[in-house]
Prior knowledge:
InterPro entries (chains A, B): Formate_THF_ligase, Formate_THF_ligase_CS, P-loop_NTPase
Organism (chains A, B): Nocardioides marmoribigeumensis
Pfam families (chains A, B): FTHFS
Binding site for ATP (chains A, B): 65-72
Mean pLDDT of chain A: 96
Oligomer: homodimer
Number of strands of chain A: 25
Structural class of chain A: alpha/beta
Family (chains A, B): Belongs to the formate--tetrahydrofolate ligase family.
Amino acid sequence: MQSDLAIARSAALKPLDEVAASMGIGPDLLEPYGENVAKIKLKAVDELADRPPAKYVVVTAITPTPLGEGKTTTTVGLGQAFKHIGKRATIAIRQPSMGPTFGIKGGAAGGGWSQVVPMELLNLHLTGDMHAVTAAHNLLSAMLDNSLHQGNPHDLDLDAITWRRVLDVNDRALRNIVVGLGGKEDGVTRQTGFDITAASEVMAVLALSTSLQDLRRRLGRVVVGYTRAGDPVTAEDLQAAGSMAVIMREAIKPNLLQTLENTPVLVHAGPFGNIAHGNSSVVADLIGIRGGDYLVTEAGFGADIGGEKFFNIKCRTSGLRPDAAVVVATVRALKAHSGRHRVVAGRPLPEAMLQENPDEVLEGAANLVKQIDNVRLHGVSPVVAINAFPEDFASEHEAIRQVAEQAGARVAVCTHFSDGGRGAIELAEAVAEASAEPTDFRFLYPAAASLREKIETIAERVYGADGVDYSPAASRQLDTYERNGFGDLPVCIAKTHLSISSDPSLKGAPTGWRLPVREVRANIGAGFVYPICGDMRTMPGLGTRAAAMSIDLDDDGEIVGLS
Amino acid sequence: MQSDLAIARSAALKPLDEVAASMGIGPDLLEPYGENVAKIKLKAVDELADRPPAKYVVVTAITPTPLGEGKTTTTVGLGQAFKHIGKRATIAIRQPSMGPTFGIKGGAAGGGWSQVVPMELLNLHLTGDMHAVTAAHNLLSAMLDNSLHQGNPHDLDLDAITWRRVLDVNDRALRNIVVGLGGKEDGVTRQTGFDITAASEVMAVLALSTSLQDLRRRLGRVVVGYTRAGDPVTAEDLQAAGSMAVIMREAIKPNLLQTLENTPVLVHAGPFGNIAHGNSSVVADLIGIRGGDYLVTEAGFGADIGGEKFFNIKCRTSGLRPDAAVVVATVRALKAHSGRHRVVAGRPLPEAMLQENPDEVLEGAANLVKQIDNVRLHGVSPVVAINAFPEDFASEHEAIRQVAEQAGARVAVCTHFSDGGRGAIELAEAVAEASAEPTDFRFLYPAAASLREKIETIAERVYGADGVDYSPAASRQLDTYERNGFGDLPVCIAKTHLSISSDPSLKGAPTGWRLPVREVRANIGAGFVYPICGDMRTMPGLGTRAAAMSIDLDDDGEIVGLS
Lengths: 563, 563
């Protein structure tokens, strides 16, 4: 098969006007950015509000291997498939981060014959939204450090500053730094660091805002640290929020691209899935929900993480109600959940995993059952998408089908990677059936519950933990947040995506364990409190052989080596 | 008078297709970015190459006060004025840096009725070129530090690493930092720092490249440091140059905007004027030179700095030959050159400078005479533009006129700030006359001269120094560069822009002094060696009252407070 880039470049793109028209958006609502990308004006939210809403479908997954199980590819494949059964669909996904594109992971435009194009633009700057997040975030950082330099009028406690800086690059050397060295004019010396832009609270704000005014208000509420008396200091206090909103003024407009089969795709925002909620933007969905019969969106990582956060954070903010949830499963991931293999990113699969072995799939099936259950917990109909790989055996697909059906889910085997939308027709039909059922969507917890109640509800009901253990620091932080009036925010638990538990080595559906909450941070602007369970890396590094080393221009100025 | 932003917002913008058509560029060469900005495809350089070239006019200035003397405003006013005398003009300027926009200086879109619009976009991200420079630069930084972390295969000398990081923000705390703290996986600990993006060598590469292929080659030649044996290590050695070029692939296309009077404006690249050459891009000029009767471009700071670098660096690279040079002069700057006043950025002028005093103007006139001479040194016809302010007196303008005419320059009083192009008709006529004269353009030095000969030629003939003193370090560095084969590069002297000398407190046209060269650095990728004379700040800071504190969105989502 051809490379993703070669397939993407062979695509017959439609003029974006036509793509927009297929979701009922006229040229007056478009701002072209180059030939094959456009921004959609924000007034589209209001102008389209009286159209009938599409069915709202979220694509989530079982607990993935470090290789990923093709969730974006399935999202794109499903979106493409609807056209094959006579339905109009819109897709909404996150913008890839440039850091991983040049690191190990590569881009995130889908793959094979289920891709978003132009993939070169999607995987690089697109319309600059990521850069705007970087600029807005770092302006606040500069104003914060400048405030310290100018005599610290806000009485900030240097040991209680939580705001760092961000860059969209995998740069391990920036994780822990000391700033303000040099002379008297060179700022106040203190330890801090950089996170990757996807980890910025400004990114989470972008993803959760419902309007430009809402974005402005959320930015004002961003807490950068605490005074020596323990009171929060905000971006508003530093008089930075207005300029930050000005910097974000274009970035809040969703980007329109298309798939290889010309299905409209909204690409907007790219928050992390652990320390943030890992979902594309609310405004993109508010527009996409008016675009036809189905809006297919993707939630980061497995149903325990991105899925739970989609239901309880994103839907709570947007007011939208999901009609169905796709749970992507693969033979290789279920074999890995048997606990018999070790899968490492950037390396080929162990030979033993490539043998026909439906029993091993069944041994790992507890993970699938639990993730189906995690969808049903929210009253949403699950559909299992078996993302087929060439090395799979029919008996292994059959094993997944049995387990899923026994758990009460619809099931479809998908070959959209090699066959495009045609390869996901069975899935589209199953999703159509599932979303035609009456919905009974419900949040897992009410906003009025205490922060501890929220954490414990998720830990016990979604993760299957026996309970939660708080470190003394975490307990103090929770008390502080409750006292500061942040107790009614949803919680966004930062834990590994490689296990339903907080221990990445535990496969399947672990039981008999307790969730350890090491510390609790708060993104007051974005609107969630995030307990940290385990080591969360917020700035990736490059390996010995970074993807960047193989990416170049050819003699015609075309990109080579990007994937 | 209304604020710049209010005037800009009241502008009757023409569709960009029409603006492009007025410079002979069809819609097939345009890539729209939003409604009022477009990129011009790079193939325009070749496609337009057989059209007759426009007259090439560079706008430079006397030595400015810290307030600036309205060079961009005059560039825009002159460009607008040509239409009033029946000629077609194109303008080419640098992209403003976002750091100063939120700092003290504000944006750089011109002012009053001589502005480039939409000024909100120009002063913020525009099409993301600055962000692309930041991303390409910092990818190389990450790959460099990662190479150290992965066992330092290139045997880099940690004390001889010259490559830093960049951000487009005024952030004094980032000037001197220590990276690589934390644990073993968090990189190698070493001291380094951030410069503002305008100071990036990648920015200078963008500004001086003649094609995408040339940009790729220049990026490969970028030197990041030296081995323990003293050999240069390049971006090509680190296998970073290909990805950097991929990141810059869209950024190398010039941006098309328009003035308040619909004159086409190419905005492209924004290199610093001290440690870099301070001129907009070569590719923009290669396109703009085919756009009509006149191409008006601007060179940073005074004729001794941006002007000299325009002639000897930019024109040497582009192959274009200037036909006339405008020297912007103001009453306030010439009064300041009398040495009797102290002008401080962000504060009102001293009361004493606002009195009618043509004698004081004459006392400062030596600076004007010397800068006129600096233009003539290169065989180019000078035209003095007196940029009139409301507080000026006619007698003071008359004094400037006498001095300029005595020095053999044409002269025009301009009121384009308050009157738009109409206010610069006299200037346009004088420029038309000057550029109709036979040209005798010449470089100040041949490429084959030694680096020391080049430095001394500029110091003595342009700056009026008695000679050059090299520190021992500078001498060693010059020897190293000559030995490494960099001796045929032009030199780009980094010195204060507030005096023709290297001492910012010396006004007028200082004599009886020697130029002290403290150290010499090399931008091998961009293609120049830069001797450093005095303290050059490459990362600005914010003041107690940053512009960012006053910028915000109003209830309609429109920007307020931007200037």
